[in-house]
Model the fold of this input.
Amino acid sequence: MKNKLLSLNIASKTVNLGSHKIALLDKIDLQVHEGEFISLMGPSGSGKSTLLNCIGMLDRFTDGGYTFLGEPVHSMKEKNRSRLYKEYIGFVFQAYHLIDELTVYENIETPLLYKNIKSSERKAMVADMLDRFNIVGKKDLFPMQLSGGQQQLVGIARALIGKPKLILADEPTGNLNSKQSDEIMELFAQLNEEGVTIIQATHSESNAAYGSRIINLLDGKIV
Amino acid sequence: MFKNYFKIALRNLWKNRTFTTLNVVGLTAAFGVAILLAMYTVFQLSFDRFHEHGDEIYQVYTEDSGLNGIEANISKSEPFAAALKDEVAGVEKITRYISTGVLLSQDDKQFDMSTAYVDPDFFEIFSFPIIKGDTKNPITSESSVVMTELAAKRIFGDEEPIGQTVSILRDEQQVPFTVTAIVKDFPNTSSMDFDIVLNFKSQNEHAYARTIGRWDMENHEVYMQLAEAVQQEQFEKNTTDFTQLHYKNVIDNAKRDGFQPNPEGLYRQLKLLPLADVRFANFNQGAVTVSRTMPYLVLGISILILFIACVNFINMSIAKSAQRLREIGMRKTLGANKKQLFFQFWGESILVFLISIGLGILLAVFLLPYFQTIFKTQASLATLLNPSLLLVLILSVLLITLIAGGYPALLMSRLGTLQSLKGKLDVHGKNHLRNSLMVLQFGIAILLISGTLVLWDQVEFMRTKDLGFNKDQVIAFPLNGQLNDQQAIELLRNKLQDKPNILSVTASNTILGLGKDGSRSTSVLGFEHQGRGVDTHMVVVDADYIETLDLNIIKGRAFRKNLASDSLSVIINEAMAKQLNEDDILASQIDLDDAVYSVVGVIKDFNFQELDQTIAPMTLFALPNWNLRNVYVKVSSQNLEQAYTDVKAAWNSIEPNAEFQGSFLNENIDRTLRHERTMITMIGSGSILAIILSCIGLFAMSLLIVAQRKKEIGVRKIVGASVSAITILLTKDFLKLIVIAFLIASPIAWWAMSKWLQNYVYRIELNIWMFLGAGGIAVVIAMLTIAVKTIKAATSNPVDSLRTE
Done:
């Protein structure tokens, strides 16, 4: 068995809607080991995105324990959590979420800026990444000038540039056609083989099949 | 990192070109105008601050108990200055000072010179450094003259001025003076303005010799330097014995007439006015009031305008931030912390501000000549180039960018990651801020507009008010030539006699309004009547004065044509008649030291002074050979311009070397309103700018709100709302803000304007329409501003707006 990357211990998230308490995630128990490729499945509103956001530390569980690389995230301060996810987690979104005002090159470079990496080193890293994804020729274009598949490619490149241990992908192919979708999934599978842990949320059975483990969610519970 | 921010900032500004332009235009206008106004304020406030001993220099004045309470007076008598220095401890140095114009000749050339007659201490008290000649005792001799570099250049060109002789016309004789020293040209922030300086004793007979040793003839000002160890209040207290000794009769008379003493129980009190306050002091209304309201008002306007422009910036930045939510969220996801985001957004604001300030400075430089002409000021941008002032300016600019740019940046950096990634913004609380800021903006605009309207009304009222004399047909000008007054008037009468368009010619020692030469004088005469003290303005006139000015005689008669037979007659105004309080006024006499005069007529009161004063008692004398410097010529109303040319030609043929400084009396009255006109122009242009800037903000808001509510508008149209219903829906919210602004601003404007109007004895009544007018103007302009966008939104096809979702 490989090292344990993260573990959720009866983790829940509830929100108050007026006087009602609604459980978005209900007592989730989950262990993720390094090198896994997990597909979260479930209908809309089942809590896939919420679970991803909580794992990605963009959101917090309201109850239960969350341990990431042996560190107790649930009792951490904002600043430390931010340090942790900056270091180890990369995000890929359905809507790509590239910054419109930045070129492909600059979008990929941005995470490095926030890690205070030196200019020469940044250049090398971004160049590697452009090379690897075959988008060197597009480095000076703006997101609006790219197709959806290309934008998602840039999004993945940006997620990978920080050499994360974990990639969280929320419906990464939701806005793409099937051909582009397959290409992106192939890429994920390849990355997984290279050792990156991936958790993806998806509606599609075929995409879920790329994963090594499928977790089904319904009304915030693992079923 | 920095480069990245800079790049994205530029791209963002470019992407939002409309808003960037609106912001830059607004801020540029605001900064440009604020720079000019701040410059004006600093210039005004720095008057007389360049004197090295400035803090120790004071003007001496008296406060007397009078019929209407305390009256302040700066005129002093010949023996006063020397006696004060001898008898009261604490006078370091003292000088008498009188400023006037003289006619100076050198070779064949003649020059009108503004002249200061002073005592030798003058150059030690004030910092008018001598750069050439006798630095020790430049005007100790009564035949010495000191001149400024500029004056020397005018007279002698490049010749060496020291030791040259010039002659000055005095008592109809050319008196030689030797140039002993040259004074460095002084800053234009000096209230004292002279070309040459002469010894006080070098004045003419009438002004000096006649007054030697007389405590009752007061005709000049006195400035002194207080010894360093002495406090102003202490010194004022110490003068009590001095005053008791030298002004015993004044004090006795005040007691006899039952005047109220001041709180210290004194009827006459010597006081000191700090030099820096002299320019801002008002002696017209009772006790001295020092008021720097005008410069601070101007500064206030510049701050209000900057505020309005900054509000636009804040509102637009916050509203636009909704479009950058994804970027904010993404940056946070990629590891940006609050500080980094704050600096990024703040940096963008600073960029806009830097551009605007740069353009604003250019705008100020461009507008400066116009500004100087309109406001008749010599203030220049160099006024602001003083290290401590620059520091203050830079700090205030930093503060403005910190608040206006920093606040939206802070809001943006604080947004939650997920919330902003989803593009959802809790806009509820922020609308409060936006609305309050817009209410403030329009409140300021309405305040300034109503101020302008009221001011304008009052000035028009003063300009067109029937002052009780004919101001439209009378040309007045000073006798500024070499001939004596009587000769000049005689010649002028002969010249103009045959001209059909000249109706009559007269002269007097005082001018009505303010003439082109800018000089004015009043003589007030005090005497005893029936055991009471009586004060009256003394106006000495030539034949036909009453006829020329169309004054109304209500009792008795005018002076006879043969004026000499009336030399012991006086004509008084109603106010004087009331003060004399006689049953048969025409049988009464007034007893002055030199002679007894009979009242032969009473004229209806007319406003011979400005409208901020009640009509004072006044007496017309027909004294022979008196100084009658001001000529009045009444012309027929047919062709006023031709008449003016004729009078000018006549004067030029009599005094070919003297400048003709004639103007109609209504222009003279206009000139006295200069201060008010400056204020109107300031506040008026301020209000125009304020409303324009507010509307820029409003326009931007309407753009954004229409965009935000696009879907709502679409849905409403689909369920059957009409174009007008939607236009009203969109307009209503803004209209509400302006109405609130009106409700807040109007009472403040009413209060401020009624307070200002208190300064005028003759004033308009405030009425609600002036304020409703201001509010109406604001509403109409605002509605026009947003009409284009809202109507377009209301008429657009609902399918288009829904498709974007």
Summary: The longest helix of chain A spans residues 178-193. Residues 135 and 150 of chain A are 8 Å apart (CA to CA). Strands of chain A lie at 4-17, 20-33, 37-41, 63-68, 71-72, 89-93, 166-170, 197-202, 213-218, 221-222. Chain A has one domain: 36-61+79-222.
